[in-house]
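From the pipeline queue, job 12 of 40. The input is one protein chain; the requested action is below.

Action: predict structure.
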Amino acid sequence: MDTTLDDAGLDLLFHKARTHNAWQDRPVEPALLHRLHALWKMPPTSANCSPQRVLFLISRDAKERLRPHLIPGNVDKTMRAPVTALLAYDLEYHEQLPKLFPHTDAKAWFDGDDKQELRRATAFRNGSLQGAYLILAARALGLDCGPMSGFDNAGVDAAFLAGTSWRSNFLCNLGYGDPDGLFPRSPRFDFDEVCRIL
């Protein structure tokens, strides 16, 4: 059995996938967001901690609550996107470890006031990993993505995450991109510029 993606699959995920800034007027059905979650939850995180939490902002009310926290260059494309995923991480992810990593007491690794920085670093690192998984999963399901970090995290946390242990990481617009809004692809490094084989 061939266990590698063919060229069309690699193009879909990497070679021809682009960061979109303009969107077709075409909705993303909630059932597709459920399929998206079913994919991005599967790849690995440390001790299966799975700290990512996602709010899918679709309604006009939700988008308007987000608007004042965006930098000016991100407003129009976000307001026009069918979905804006607010990708967050849960600082109390360790409370779920008895469920997610039941074969040992992994919760004890992160318990206590002296472990706050460890919890934060673990949540941020693994939540960011899961954000990348979400982008690849969205592309695999035929969605285009527009990830971005140009927003006021504290403002977004106050507007959407107040009273929770969740903290915003980054935003990702989702939908069906309009290729007329694409910029030329920026350069990428060659192997020898960024890699070493030891």
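Job complete. Residues 32-178 form a domain with the NADH Oxidase fold (CATH 3.40.109.10).
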